[in-house]
Design a protein that fits this description.
The chain is mainly alpha-helical. The protein has a domain of 38 residues. Helix content is 59%, strand content 6%. Strand 1 and strand 2 form a beta hairpin.
Length: 66
């Protein structure tokens, strides 16, 4: 393995892709903080996806350098 950090990031990206469709909360009417639990799941999903993409940019390291 050349770079274990990049390997881990790619594995997390695949996992995030697999967790995107939340079949388990699709028909659940439960409210959490006044919003449907499926919407709360996707809010959390978007936050995790944002952090993962930021980790990809940080792992790249040399963007923006001239």
């Amino acid at each position: 393995m050349k770079n274990p950090v990049k390997w881990m990031l790619y594995c997390l990206l695949v996992l995030l892709f697999l967790l995107h469709n939340d079949f388990w909360f699709w028909k659940t009417p439960q409210l959490v903080l006044g919003i449907p639990i499926g919407l709360l799941y996707h809010i959390g999903y978007c936050l995790v996806a944002t952090l993962l993409m930021a980790a990809f940019v940080k792992a790249r390291g040399d963007w923006g350098e001239k």
